[in-house]
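Worked example 2:
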Amino acid sequence: MWTNINKWSLWNADLEYCKLDQPFKVGSVFTLKPKGAPAVQISLVEIAHEKMFTDCTKFLGAKMYGKHEMHVEKNGLRLTTTITVTGMLKYLWIALVAQKIVDKFSLQMDTLVQLALIQKR
């Protein structure tokens, strides 16, 4: 479910939609449309099948990377997302975008897990 970009809005209430018309592979680009904000183009820049993927959003003077990792542990599966912003205007984009994303991670991951459990049944 985490890599099914077209269904991200099912577990992320802040999104109008996400759309990936290409295979889930390095170099593919998808559109993410937050509620109340313009759509952005995001590239998949790193993928390790069933382990992790990294996406990249380009802003004026900065790039934001989202690294999404899945770790199998003895008590289950741990999902980790790390946001990194680079570039001359990184502090601006951290304040405008990245921090707001990070603040909602816990709720989004809880919703994702609940949806995954329902689908598993």
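The first strand starts at residue 15 and ends at 19. The two ends are 14 Å apart (CA to CA).
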